[in-house]
Write a structure and sequence with these properties.
Layout lengths: L1 H16 L22 E15 L13 E15 L3 E16 L2 E18 L3 E13 L10 H5 L9 E13 L5 E15 L9 E15 L2 E14 L5 E17 L2 E16 L5 E18 L2 E12 L2 E14 L2 E11 L5 E12 L3 E13 L5 E14 L4 E14 L5 E14 L4 E14 L3 E18 L2
Antiparallel strand pairs: 1-2, 1-22, 2-3, 3-4, 4-5, 5-6, 6-7, 7-8, 8-9, 9-10, 10-11, 11-12, 12-13, 13-14, 14-15, 15-16, 16-17, 17-18, 18-19, 19-20, 20-21, 21-22
């Protein structure tokens, strides 16, 4: 423990002091992020320290159990090297956390996150590699920012413990400029849980291998032959072991200069074996495909899409239409449609998004309703609404307001989860390198047959981001 604490202290000291002799520096702005690398070797550093006070940090139903006091110091590091033929990017971060939460205390290094991406272009080929490792305390995860699958399983609230993600992938394409091209992609992903009490949280892994062969028939016509398979294994209550195989033929056709057709037709098969409580198996197979027509207009596009997909629960058919506008001061997108699942029920799906950028302010709002099948083989309807507004008061300060609302309706289990988050923040640039951010946040949570909860939070953060080019 002594050696570990010393290392953390040294890292924190170096991260804080390094800007005094690194040159040139990258000034930090409100919500500053590392500068884009224009080429060559670049090092990005960041430090952010803050305090959070929350009267119900765990969003416990029936009222909070006391005030939570959390002190986080986040350290981040990035290395990138860009040349004419390849790009290498490495990003890492971690949090030195001291927290007093009703029921437990935290002191030490938390939330390690490391990500590596590499891409190399040849004369007629491309190689891509990526890897990511992330570990987090589940009570500190934001349900509006984590993976959609977690929200679908209603797993983001309760259970406590830690969650670890591991993802690795490689892709190689040859014949980029040739009449015939070929690509192969392999991926591996894992999700692991520890010290959690929720039975709906279980370790799982997925391996997949996919190939695609492209045929450039003419300047306006391209065919693709896709073949793929995946293997999913979960340590759940029934011991799920699922293999998926699919084959499809795709067509991309420019019917005229402003009308494009994108279509695919194929076959998919899903074989699922269960080892508990007694061995059993289930097979689903059937035709799958998509058909999309897109018309380019003077101020945007209009499109229509029909889709047939297959999940472990059976087939799903969807029909959607949409319109996108490019406006003088922003963009507007609308879509609406219907979907029919394996149980025969029809549901409305759609989305709407609007963004506006003015000289001193920006505004965005989005709404969506979608249907899917989660990793627990349950059908889920998801509704999301998000809005944000930012106003630049002057060159040194700005105000940001945001609202998020979500409903996850598990039509298989009948469980409905409703969440709301309202946040307001004020950012002040203290110097060319340092910013202070302060604000409040209000959260609500409501789950069928469980109850509701509310949380009031105040926070303040001091941060700095800078770049060094050796």
């Amino acid at each position: 423990m002594g050696k570990t604490s010393s290392k953390i202290a040294v890292i924190a000291a170096l991260t804080t002091l390094y800007p005094t002799f690194a040159a040139p520096q990258q000034p930090g702005g409100a919500g500053a992020t590392p500068a884009t690398n224009p080429g060559g070797v670049q090092l990005d550093f960041g430090v952010s320290t803050g305090l959070i006070l929350d009267d119900n940090f765990k969003l416990s139903t029936g009222g909070g159990t006391g005030l939570s006091k959390i002190s986080d110091t986040k350290l981040s590091f990035g290395l990138s090297n860009i040349t004419a033929v390849d790009q290498l990017t490495f990003r890492s971060s971690g949090v030195i956390r001291f927290a007093d939460i009703p029921g437990r205390s935290i002191a030490g290094f938390e939330s390690p996150d490391a990500q590596l991406n590499y891409m190399r272009d040849g004369k007629n080929s491309r190689l891509s590699l990526d890897a990511r490792y992330r570990k987090a305390d589940r009570e500190f995860l934001d349900p509006f920012k984590v993976e959609q699958e977690e929200q679908n399983t209603n797993a983001q609230i309760g259970g406590g413990g830690t969650q670890t993600w591991q993802n690795y992938g490689a892709s190689y394409t040859v014949g980029l400029q040739s009449p015939i091209s070929f690509s192969v992609t392999a991926r591996h992903s894992e999700i692991d849980y520890s010290n959690t009490t929720a039975t709906t949280l279980y370790d799982s892994r997925t391996d997949s291998l996919r190939t695609s062969t492209g045929f450039r028939v003419s300047p306006v016509t391209q065919l693709t032959l896709n073949l793929g398979g995946s293997h999913y294994v979960a340590n759940d209550a029934v011991g799920t072991d699922r293999k998926t195989q699919d084959l499809s033929l795709g067509l991309q056709q420019d019917i005229n200069p402003v009308l494009a057709l994108n279509a695919s037709l194929g076959w998919s098969q899903i074989d699922t074996d269960y080892s508990l409580p007694v061995p059993s198996s289930k097979t689903r197979d059937g035709a799958v495909g998509t058909l999309t027509l897109t018309q380019t207009l003077a101020n945007g596009t209009v499109w229509g899409s029909a889709t047939s997909s297959l999940s472990v629960n059976g087939s799903r058919q969807s029909l959607s239409f949409g319109r996108d506008w490019t406006l003088p001061l922003g963009t507007l997108s609308l879509s609406a449609g219907t979907t029919r699942g394996a149980n025969g029920d029809n549901a409305f799906i759609g989305s709407a998004a609007y963004t506006s950028q003015l000289q001193a302010s920006d505004f965005s709002i989005s709404m969506s309703r979608s249907a899917s099948t989660n990793s627990a083989s349950e059908d889920v309807l998801s509704t999301r609404v998000a809005a944000s507004y930012g106003y630049q008061i002057n060159n040194l300060s700005r105000i940001d307001l945001s609202a998020n609302y979500g409903v996850t309706d598990n039509t298989t289990t009948g469980v409905k989860v409703e969440r709301t988050t309202l946040r307001g923040a004020y950012t002040r640039q203290l110097t060319a390198d340092w910013n202070v951010v302060g604000g409040v946040q209000f959260r609500t949570y409501d789950e069928t047959a469980v109850g509701d909860a509310t949380s009031n939070q105040a926070f303040v953060t001091l941060d700095r981001n800078f770049t060094f080019r050796p």
